[in-house]
C-alpha cells in the first residue's frame, strides 16, 4: 500500500542520529516521519549510559546550541556529573555525565512526541524507493510505501549486524534487537562503498553481588555541572556514586590462556574496532607489560541494579567472561546480568558524502551516525542534526548549511570524515581541532545559536535566554573595563591579600581578571554588584584571561582564510594540472574537495602540490 500522506523528510532509525535528525527537520517546519524498529527503543543507549567526555561534550554543547535534544535529555537523566580536565585550560575542559538509561530514553521520547510536524512509525524499513539517481521514499517490512523527497538513514550498528560471543555468532543489531539484513542487502546493490567495523560492550553486573567496600568511591563534582547551556542542576535527578577497581595478574592470565577462543584473535571478526575503546583482551595483548587496568564501575540508573564495568568490554566466551569478572577485586561473587559481546556491522565510506551528509551517489539520500564510520552517541547525534537540517533545507529549496572547522567540532568531524574517510571507528577528541581555543564547550552558543535561529532550529525560549545572556555579557564586560581600583584603598588591600602581590597603581577590574591568580568572584563585587548569572561570570573570566591567545588564533584563521577558502569547481579536471602525482590526482578526484583548505587536508597532500593547485586555480579563474 502507498501511505496516503506524503512527507518532506523521512528518517530511518530512532537512535541518537535519527532522533536529532527528525527533531531538526521538524523544528524547521518540514513534515517529518521517523520510522524505527521499535518505539520503545527511541533514544536507547546501546552501550554505557554516559554522555560527554573529552571532545564529545563539545559536540553535545554544539547540538544544544543548535536547539537539539541530547544535552537537555542528559540534564533530565544524569545521575553523576563531572568536569574532566578541570585544572587545564578551558579549551580542553569537558563535561561528562553518567545517565539513567530509562530516564534518558523517556526524555528523548517526550521531546519527539511533543514536537510538531513530527510523526513516528514503528516498522523495519527494508528498501529505499530510488528512481534514476534520486531517492523518493522507503518501503517497510510489511510493504508500506512512504514517499518523501529526502530520506535520512541512521541505522547504527544494525546493517547486517553480527553479534559475537566467543566463537558463536548470531544476527542482531545489538543484544535483544533484530539486525537490518534486508535493507543491508539492498544497500549493497547501490553504488556505495561498504565495509565492516566492529564495537563491543562489557558484561553487566548485578550490584547486589558486588563488594563496594574494597573499591574506591568516585562522586560527581560539587557544584554539579550541567550539560545544556540552558541547564540547571535543580532539574537533575538524585546523584549516585561510581567506583573504581582494577584488573590484576590473575585476570590477565585467564584472558591470555583463552585468546584462542576469542573471535578477535582467531580471525573470526574482520571489522576494525575502536582504538580508543579497546576490549580487555585487546588491552592485555597490546599492553602486555601492564599488570593492571582500571575498571570504572558505573550504575546504569536509579531503578536498576545493573552496573556497567567500564574497561572490560569483551567478546570472549561466557565461561571466560565469568572467570574474568570474578577475578576482579569486589567482583568475587558477582552475578552477570547480561553477557558482553562484540558486534560487526556495515558502514559506508564517508568519502561518498557531501559536507551536508547527503550521499554523492543518490540525490536526497542522507547518511548519519554509526553508518558513517563513527562511534559514540555524541558523534551520531551531531551528524543527525546536520543531516536532518540539510534534508529540510533541500526540500525547502534553501541553500545548504554546515559548520566549518573553525566554527564547530561538528565541522571538524564532518570535514575529517568526508575528506579522509576512516579505517576504524571515528571518535572525537579535542586534538582533532586546529582552532581549539575558539571551539570551547563554554562558547558553543556564541558560535552557533544565532545561525541556528536563522535556520529555524532554535526556539523562542532558547533565543530569548541566549539574547539576555549576550546583553548581560556585554554589560558586565563594559562594567569591569570601566571600574577602577586605586592603590592603597581597602579594595586594593583585598586584591593584594588574594593575589599576594602589591597593587602599585590603578587597575581596571578587567585587567585584574587577566591575572591567573584572580577569579571573577574575587574581584567582581569590589565596586558594584557581581553578575548573578554563572554562565556570564564564567564567560567574562575566560574571555579576559585568554584574550591574547584568542586574538592570535583569530589572526591565524584570517591569514589562512585568504588562501584556504578558494573554491574548487565541482567539475574541476585534476588531469589538467600538470605536476600532480597520479596518486594525488586520484585522491583528489575521489574526495572532490570544495576548497583548497579541504584539499590540503587530504592524506598525502604536499605543500608543493597544494601550491600547484592554487596557482592553476588562480590562472584559470
Ligand atoms: P543506533 O543508536 O544504533 O540507532 C540505530 C537505530 O536505527 C535503532 O533504533 C534501530 O532500531 C534503527 N534501525 C536500524 N535499522 C533499521 C531499519 N532497517 N528500519 C527501521 N529502523 C532501523 N559507542 C561508544 O562511544 N563507545 C563504545 O564503547 C561503544 N560500544 C558499543 C557497543 C555495542 C555493542 C554497541 C551496539 C554500540 C556501541 N557504541 C559505543 C556505539 C553507540 O551505541 C553508537 O555510536 C550510537 O548508538 C550510534 O547512534 P546511531 O543513531 O548511529 O545508531
Describe the structure.
It is built from 20 helices and 23 strands. It has 621 residues and is of the alpha+beta class. The strands form six sheets. A six-stranded antiparallel beta sheet has the order 15-16-17-18-14-19, with no helix packed on it. Strand 1, helix 1 and strand 2 form a beta-alpha-beta unit. It is globular, with a radius of gyration of 26 Å. It starts with 8 loop residues before the first strand and ends with a helix. 48% of the residues are buried. The model has no long low-confidence stretch (mean pLDDT 93). The structure holds flavin-adenine dinucleotide (FAD). The site of flavin-adenine dinucleotide has 36 residues, from helix 1, strand 2, strand 13 and helix 9. Homodimer. Heterotetramer of two MnmE and two MnmG subunits. This is tRNA uridine 5-carboxymethylaminomethyl modification enzyme MnmG.
Primary descriptors:
binds flavin-adenine dinucleotide, 5-stranded parallel β-sheet, single chain, 621 residues, 23 strands, 6-stranded antiparallel β-sheet
Write the layout of secondary structure elements.
Blueprint: E1 9-12, H1 16-27, E2 32-36, E3 50-52, H2 56-65, H3 70-77, E4 78-84, E5 94-99, H4 101-114, E6 118-122, E7 125-131, E8 134-140, E9 145-147, E10 150-153, E11 162-165, E12 168-171, H5 181-188, E13 194-201, E14 204-206, E15 216-218, E16 242-246, H6 249-257, H7 280-286, E17 294-299, E18 306-310, H8 318-326, E19 336-338, E20 341-348, E21 365-367, H9 377-395, H10 409-420, H11 444-455, H12 460-482, E22 484-485, H13 490-499, E23 507-508, H14 509-513, H15 520-523, H16 534-545, H17 547-564, H18 582-591, H19 596-600, H20 607-619
Parallel strand pairs: 1-2, 1-10, 2-6, 10-21
Antiparallel strand pairs: 3-5, 4-5, 7-8, 8-9, 11-12, 11-20, 13-20, 14-18, 14-19, 15-16, 16-17, 17-18, 22-23
Helix pairs in contact: 1-9, 2-9, 2-11, 3-4, 6-8, 12-16
